[in-house]
Design goal:
12 strands, single chain, Rossmann fold, seven-stranded parallel beta sheet, alpha/beta, 330 residues
């Protein structure tokens, strides 16, 4: 049995690939020619070179596969070229699922995000049924994931695509090589590079628990359904406090109002566009998102899949250890 994993060179994808290998599955990974392959170095996988934006390259990747884990995505909170993110996250996902249909793949697990879901205004945990619209989506990344989910649901309804959707929250843990924005936050807090913070909150989960959830969705998930794969809902102050305690640092005590950070974000984005650089110090959409506490419930996944998540302190400890061993705290 051959299983295709897209995004295996990344954070969540590499965790899923490792767990599939541990279960004895034959794993094939889709990787771009320019992908950083440190996360799959030494793994017993077949590498198929291709790109989600080049549909013709996907046929060889899906050929002979019984299942696909589509985890790859363009995940950035700021980009010079929003159309590129849309093309990868929406058109690329449609192309891969359609290629899987042509190859008679039995099951496809599509990795969405809690970013595509609604948020409760009273800060109670949202779930898979919390209403949301495209107008609720802040920033190009959230819009792209919302529209990609809509496209997936259409393929399920119109072409009987055998897709189960999972919506991870904010994963943390080892092998966050980029790192993700949450990973950056953890590394900065552990290294004492965070003198202040804003009032926000998010749902944090160990990346290996998210990987477990993917496999459970493959084995037990219902076609067309979506499942939140999360952990604990924590304020940013609590997150920083727990990380500071892990490394023996005093946590920052200064909370900066969103209204103070927003002008800095506009200036940072303007300078990045003029001077150059991969991303601004802080993005406008990032500040806008921080105004809302992104709390979620994984009750459905627990009930229907048997999903579990470990205490988030273990996730922080594993992340800090990996960041330290790989020089991110220098």
């Amino acid at each position: 049995m051959t299983v295709l994993v897209t995004g295996a060179t990344g954070f969540v994808g590499s965790a899923v690939a490792r767990q599939l290998i541990a279960k004895g599955e034959t794993v094939r990974v889709l990787a771009r020619p320019t992908s950083d392959r440190r996360n799959i170095d030494g793994l017993d996988v077949e590498v198929c070179v291709g790109d989600l934006t080049e549909p013709q390259s996907l046929n060889a990747a899906v050929s002979g596969c019984t299942a696909i884990f589509h985890i790859a995505a363009d995940y950035r909170l700021w980009t010079r070229h929003p159309e590129e993110m849309m093309r990868t996250n929406i058109d690329g996902s449609k192309a891969l699922i359609e290629a899987g249909l042509d190859a008679d793949v039995d099951r496809i697990v599509y990795t969405s995000s809690v970013a595509a879901l609604g948020i409760n205004k009273d800060e109670t945990p949202a779930d898979e049924t919390t209403p949301s619209t495209l107008d609720d989506m802040i920033g190009v990344y959230k819009r792209s994931k919302f529209l990609a989910e809509e496209a997936v649901h259409t393929l399920v309804a119109e072409k009987n695509a055998p897709v189960v959707i999972v919506n991870p929250s904010a994963p943390v843990g080892p092998r966050d090589i980029k790192p993700t924005r949450t990973g950056e936050l953890i590394a900065d807090a552990a290294a004492g590079r965070m003198p202040a913070f804003v009032d926000t909150g998010l749902n944090v989960v160990h990346v290996d628990d998210v990987a477990d959830g993917h496999i459970l969705a493959w084995q037990k998930g219902k076609i067309g359904e979506r499942y939140i794969l999360g952990g604990e809902n924590l304020s940013l102050a609590t997150i920083i406090g727990q990380i500071s305690e892990l490394v023996g640092r005093k946590p920052p005590s200064i909370s900066i109002p969103h209204g103070v950070v927003m002008p800095i974000a506009y200036i940072a984005e303007t300078l990045t566009r003029i001077v150059g650089g991969e991303k601004p110090l802080v993005a406008v959409d990032e500040v806008r998102m921080a105004r809302k506490k992104m709390y979620f419930s994984s009750a459905k996944a627990q009930r229907e899949l048997g999903y579990k998540s470990r205490p988030v302190k273990e996730a922080f400890a594993d992340a800090v250890q990996w960041f330290r061993e790989n020089g991110y705290l220098d």
